Amino acid sequence: MADVTPPAATTDRGAGDEPELVIKVRDLVVGFGERNVIDGMDMDVRKGEILGVVGPSGTGKSVSLRAIIGLTPKRAGTVEVFGVDLDAASAADRLAVERRWGVLFQQGALFSSLTVRQNIEMPLREHTNLSPKLREEIARVKIDLVGLKPEAGDRFPSELSGGMIKRAALARALALDPDIVFLDEPTAGLDPIGANAFDRLIMTLKDALGLTVYLVTHDLDTLTTACDRIAALKGGKVLAIGPMSEMVKNDDPWMKEYFRGERARAAGIGATAA
Ligand SMILES: Nc1ncnc2c1ncn2[C@@H]1O[C@H](COP(=O)(O)OP(=O)(O)OP(=O)(O)O)[C@@H](O)[C@H]1O
């Protein structure tokens, strides 16, 4: 493994029983051209939770994810991960934090010219000095962990189904045994059975590995089944954050339509509101 020791997680505990935070976003502003897409966003992500991030289309859910991991530049604000302010940190400290997260981008974003195994080995090549044999062994374990057959390791992304691509991308996100995974619409494009299986996989991995999950989604089933809390973004800010039982009581027009509308009722969420 690489020789950088990750900084210890902040407990961030107050006087009471406040939950331990692994991500703390304050006054985040992210924009393009003259428009600020994220405009003063505060967000806390608790250790060990699956936080579902929802909001109207184009409201900045993916941008928030990309800004937290530093792929999209901020105009203002701070992002702390494991108590490390990512802008103020030294390069070594920042790298140490980056090693503790894995990311599943929309569409999987696997390298098309590499096999699944080579894709999973890529972060291990970049961040560790492991031998090729050990890298291959870890890739084999991750392939098994996400429920793919061993043969899938030799396939190229173009030879996989949508569900297999998501699983392969998740295996790659898990390559470095992260503490946090960022998932950008992981069930988009999957049929309901495949989506449900993927939700269950994320929950199982969360429980087994103690993962914290930042999950951007439109999928009401995912929110109901898998998420401990939900953050609803609107107007560049977090409009509401809490469990589903709180979301269904919110009287913002978009929230009402989303959490109490026809699709929500079809997903059985109306019952929660009663
Ligand atoms: N690199 C970029 N350059 C310019 N505009 C961008 C860029 N990335 C995102 N945007 C704009 O920022 C806004 C928010 O995009 P984002 O992808 O975060 O939306 P979203 O909430 O995830 O939407 P959806 O639910 O439709 O996926 C959109 O208007 C988008 O066009």
What does this structure look like?
This protein has 274 residues and is an alpha/beta fold. The chain has a domain of 66 residues. The protein contains eleven helices and ten strands. A six-stranded mixed β-sheet has the order 6-7-8-3-9-10, with helices on both faces. The chain has a four-stranded antiparallel β-sheet with strand order 2-1-4-5, with helices on one face. Helix 3 crosses helix 4, helix 3 runs parallel beside helix 5 and helix 6 packs parallel to helix 7. The radius of gyration is 19 Å and the shape is globular. The relative contact order is 0.15. Adenosine-5'-triphosphate binds next to helix 1.
> Could you say which structural class the secondary elements and strand pairing correspond to?
alpha/beta
Q: What's the order of the H and E elements? A: EEEHEEHEHHHEHEHEEHHHH
Continuous helix count? 11
Which runs of at least 5 residues are low in confidence (pLDDT < 50)?
1-15
Q: Estimate the helix proportion, in percent.
A: 25-40%
The rounded Rg comes to 19 Å
- Number-wise, the strands total 10
- Could you give the distance between the termini? 51 Å
**Mean of the pLDDT scores?**
89
Largest sheet: 6 strands, mixed
Instruction: Give the neighbour order of strands across the main sheet.
Output: 6-7-8-3-9-10
Percentage beta strand: 15-25%
What does the overall shape look like? Answer: globular
Name every ligand kind in the structure. Answer: adenosine-5'-triphosphate
Task: Name the assembly state.
Answer: single chain
